[in-house]
Amino acid sequence: MNTEHAVHVERLCKTFGPTTALDELDLAVPRGTVFGLLGRNGAGKTTLMRVIMGLLRPDRGEALVFGEDMRRAPIDLRARVAYVPQEVSLIARLDLARHADLLGHFYPRFDVDAARSLARRLDVDWDLAAGALSVGSRRKAAVVLALASGADLVVLDEPAAGLDPLARRALYELLIERLGEGGELTVLLSTHLVHDLERLADRVAILDAGRTLRVDDVEGFARSLVRLQVVFPDDVPRDFEIPGAETTRREGCVAVGVVDVVRAGGRLAELEARRDLRVTRFALGLEDVFVELVGPREDSLTEVAS
Known about the structure:
Elements lengths: L4 E12 L2 E12 L3 E5 L6 H8 L7 E6 L9 H4 L2 E4 L11 H11 L5 H10 L13 H13 L5 E5 L7 H15 L6 E6 L2 H7 L2 E6 L2 E7 H7 E7 L17 E3 L2 E7 H4 L1 H8 L4 E6 L2 H9 L6 H5 L1
Parallel strand pairs: 3-7, 3-8, 5-6, 6-7
Antiparallel strand pairs: 1-2, 1-4, 8-9, 10-12, 10-13, 11-12
């Protein structure tokens, strides 16, 4: 039984009719980290989370939480996990005080005082029925209840979806504070908003078409992928390829490509040592890496970066 990681996913496959949602996906979420899932809409993030939580049965592979399949996990293990789905489901007629009371029967470490304080800080009415709250306030309320649950693993699927920038910032500042309180809280966070993960995540997995394209810490992405510009004295030779780059773009005397430093190995050093060329590295942010790995979105990049 593997308990080294809070979440361990191996060769996970899930289809819906002709659509492949998860395709031999592997993932390991270390304990005590904020682990981000980054991908465009339809990349498989929500399906992956629902399989992890035991709400969907995979076609093949396994998804373990603290070494257990959540579909068969005992009640004490389930009480160590809190989940906020994209579609928040609070009981419409109950206020947050009553929700907290009910959750206290399931989560032994639920902190009502903390929940009330967090709700106040996020401007969520503690005494108003959930059905009377705005969509954004219901989402904030669900995150408040998850953070106050005392769970060891909090799974958040697009927690800031639909929130304005101020509300999103307040929500994440609260999450950062909660993480700073000590203990071994693990957060698995899914989003397509790059800047959110740059602020929060220790490690990020970039998903596309149900597969894991790359996993690294945020700084690691910047170290392992760079944009390389090579300037020749004359036009770029037709057969010239930048080592470690998927593609080489040529325009006149300039060649440009995004280089995987590890894959390029010694060939990159040899290129940079050439005296007849001017070779320049440019750092990439997580947004640049995301676009390079998955390709441009059909809609504008503004949504990815907002």
